[in-house]
Design a protein that fits this description.
Elements (H helix, E strand, L loop, with lengths): L1 E5 L3 H13 L2 E5 L3 H8 L10 H10 L3 E4 L2 H5 L4 E4 L15 H13 L4 E5 L7 H12 L5 E5 L9 H6 L4 E5 L2 H11 L9 E4 L1 H32 L3 H9 L20 H14 L5 H24 L8 E5 L15 H10 L3 E5 L4 H7 L4 E2 L3 H5 L4 E4 L11 H7 L4 E4 L6 H6 L4 E4 L5
Parallel strand pairs: 1-2, 1-4, 2-3, 4-5, 5-6, 7-8, 9-10, 9-12, 10-11, 12-13, 13-14
Antiparallel strand pairs: 6-7
Helix pairs in contact: 1-3, 5-6, 9-11, 9-12, 11-12, 12-13
Bound molecules: uridine-5'-diphosphate-xylopyranose.
Family: Belongs to the UDP-glucose/GDP-mannose dehydrogenase family.
Enzyme class: oxidoreductase
Keywords: NAD, Oxidoreductase
């Protein structure tokens, strides 16, 4: 199959590289010249384990290329994927679709043969039908089909999620679109994955519903965690006891400082707006968003308590600022709420993160970047574990406590426990959902 992928952001790049690895001929299109040069040289602009090797192999084998010439990429393609950004629009919380529609119209003008135009970007219900309408308006002369093919990739595990999906969801309403989509994903069939074939609106809705449900699990357990602290229960035991019930499942029940990232905050917000537009308020999702905001702020109260009531003049070491481990992404990370509160309260903040510094230098002005946890903790009054990177999972707590001015630990990912901390010399310890 010949595939054009419009947009080389996170989703576009991972999808393009993986499709080429299936054996398809893939041309990725982007407008950013510098990015294109880097990509052609095999340089991956994001941190995603395994992506660089896979990309280099497929470039070398001649199946994957990069261009700014959309018309040339689209010419002769059997499927054109739209994987441009759909950021939250300023002011009203709606997904901004201007990039999607601009791409659709540009593609339409360039098409030379019947083609399936597939939307991979997360888009509100109705967008694919509007894409079809706009494409047909530009090209009444050609048979063009559309398909919706939402992605369910986790950052940090995107290659595996793409190659071994729990399911592939495809919204397509013509025989030809269904056939082309089945052919694109056929190389996966050896692994026997379920393909959900449905209409355009259901495919679009599936993506929002899935992400909002996962976000709901997180906000739910975070709220239970707050109650656990009051009643003397341990949220880890509660989550385990709940999760062993197969109807509930044990995933996404880790209490923490709140969810972040490029998907959950944006998609829950967009779903809430879609609900309001159709006079069917999504009350659960609206509450999930509010609970997540509250969870982040609740962490700040914990840190103030550990600093004896004030951040002023304290040195605070923060371990991890990305929204989760194995990514350099800081979008909507709890760190963006918590770290400015520390600085605003008069603390001197030292930060370490295995991948977060490049983005963090712009997003967290006023912090000092340290090489590792031990350097960050030296002389500090509080140590905060904010992201559960592997390298923070087996720290020498004794060494950290000895080097600190006042050995207090805020373990916001529940990696350690009070006993371990106190045995290692910490004089104060707090975590999430385990004790007041
Ligand atoms: C998510 C979805 O998992 C993916 O299917 C979707 O299409 C894109 O959004 P991603 O944003 O990469 O993927 O991260 P994910 O691993 O889902 O974690 C999201 C956030 O939830 C992180 O901030 C993480 O720390 C938090 N989280 C996750 C919890 O706080 N507790 C949990 O139990 C799980």
């Amino acid at each position: 199959m010949r595939i054009a992928m419009i947009g080389t952001g996170y989703v576009g790049l991972v999808s393009g590289v993986c499709f080429s690895d299936f054996g398809h001929q893939v041309v990725c299109v982007d407008k950013d010249q510098r990015k294109l040069e880097r990509l052609r040289a095999g340089e991956v602009p994001i941190f995603e384990p395994g992506l660089d090797t896979l990309m280099a192999r497929n470039i070398a084998d001649g199946r994957l290329s990069f261009t700014d010439d959309l018309a040339a990429a689209v010419d002769g393609a059997e499927a054109v994927f739209i994987a441009v950004g759909t950021p939250t629009r300023r002011g009203d919380g709606h997904a901004d679709l201007s990039y999607v529609y601009a791409a659709a119209e540009e593609i339409a003008a360039a098409l030379t043969r019947p083609t399936v135009v597939v939307t991979k970007s997360t888009v509100p219900v109705g967008t694919n039908r509007e894409v079809l309408r706009r494409i047909r308006a530009v090209r009444p002369d050609l048979v063009i089909d559309v398909a919706s093919n939402p992605e369910f990739l986790r950052e940090g595990a995107a290659i595996d999620d793409f190659m071994r999906p729990d399911r592939v969801v495809i919204g397509a309403e013509t025989e030809r679109a269904r056939k082309v989509m089945a052919e694109i994903y056929r190389p996966l069939s050896l692994r026997d994955f379920p393909m959900v074939q449905t209409d355009l609106e259901s495919a679009e809705m599936t993506k929002y519903a899935a992400n909002a449900f996962l976000a709901t699990k997180i906000s739910f357990i975070n709220e239970i965690a707050a109650l656990c602290e009051r009643v003397g229960a341990d949220v880890k035991a509660v989550a385990r006891g709940m999760g062993l019930d197969k109807r509930i499942g044990d995933k996404f029940l880790h209490a923490g400082p709140g969810y972040g990232g490029s998907c959950f905050p944006k998609d829950t917000m967009a779903l809430a707006r879609i609900g309001q537009d159709h006079s069917v308020p999504q009350r659960i999702t609206e509450t999930v968003i509010a609970v997540n905001d509250h969870t982040k702020r609740r962490m700040i109260d914990k840190l103030i308590d550990l600093c004896d009531g004030s951040f002023n003049g304290k040195r605070i070491a923060v371990l991890g600022v990305t929204f989760k481990p194995n990514t350099d992404d800081m979008r909507e990370a709890p760190a963006l709420t918590i770290v400015p509160a520390l600085i605003g309260g008069g603390a001197e903040v030292r930060v370490t993160d295995p991948q977060g510094q490049r983005e963090g230098e712009h997003l967290l002005p006023g912090v000092r970047w340290m090489a590792n946890a031990y350097d960050a903790a030296d002389g500090a009054d509080l140590l905060v574990i904010l992201t559960e990177w592997n390298e923070f999972r087996a720290l020498d707590l004794g060494r950290l406590a000895r080097s600190m001015n006042r050995a207090a630990l805020a373990d916001l990912r529940n990696i350690y426990d009070r006993q371990m901390a106190e045995r290692s010399g910490f004089v104060a310890y707090d975590s999430v959902g385990r004790e007041a």
